[in-house]
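ok so i was messing around last nite and threw this chain in just to see what happens. nothing serious, just curious
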Amino acid sequence: MNILFDLVSTQSTINGGGEYVKTVFLALVSRISKHHLSAKIFAMYNSKDKMAFDDLQLKDINEFENVVLVDVNNKSIPQLVEKLRIDVFFIGIAQKIAKFYNLSGIKCRTICVIHDMAHQEVQNVGLSKYLVQNNLKEWFKQYALNRWFESKRHVNTDLYGMIEYLNTINTEYIAVSEYSKYSISYLTDISSDKLHVMYSPLKFNQMSSEISNQNLKALIEKHEDYFLVVSANRPLKNAVKVINAYKKYQKDTGSNIKLVTIGYRQRPVCDGHIVLPYLSESDLENAYKHCYALVYSSMLEGFGYPPVEAMKFGRPVLSSNVCSMPEILGDAPIYFSPFYETDIYRTLRIISDKNVSEELSLKSSKRFEMVQQRQNDDLEKLLNLILQN
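result:
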């Protein structure tokens, strides 16, 4: 069996979708090697983009048995499929492949993962930063400009065009949550019998006891309590509202609990607010492990890795109550509306009680065991689907 595996989706930037693809790839390599399967993986990458993950570089991939690197820079994927006699093509992030590559003409069995429909659900997704900053004047200005640009070029049509073609061949689609499935069903013409829900697998990370970021290291060594906010520069993660709520919380309570925002590109807004750059995967694991609580204010998720990562270490979670969050997290977090700073402020006050924090820690650990079992089971199903003759 010849498998064309999309590693393009692990390039350029680190995000949850890339983590998903990396984990599935490593699990597939391991399965083929462990069981001595007659299968070869053609790992598709683009030489013009960097490999984003430190533990998945080209030199590492070259050492894998039964894996051949295939550069798709300036190449036709349908022609590669025919030349390499590909039996199955695995697409890790549908939107990324649809944006840069034309798949019309491929005839092999295809497995296509659609993590969410963010750009379709939240039109003008790039404008959301002005909403979370309460800058309505700039929002209207940028909205008008975006509508003008959209009239000049077809925006957000790439995915629909790819799906329209893939629907004509033997394609199975994967949604990473029930929420994603309903979102995809609502916004596309994908048949329900071709759309399967398989939870995103547990991330493949190795945490080191050595912490490279000195500010994080000092925080942990001093045993400081801190609320953690990740991906704070991405508008839909909605960090600004958490920061504003924390500023009020700090003023009213004088609490010693800090606020650590990772990736936030502005200066700290008040005492206790600590701004960290994006961290290595190992340092990020340590940040989860030692936080007082994770505050996850995302306005749109297909699955949502960060709360699961925090629950892995038994850390309390404060979470937005929209999209996939209630499905994945169950009764483990305290939920809030991501649209109201007052509601986020409310949960910060509640979690400050040590008894509440301890109760949520137990709930996190219990919920993680359930989610992890589902993740492991679904990963096995996905590998079986890829390797199916």
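not much to say yet. The radius of gyration is 22 Å.
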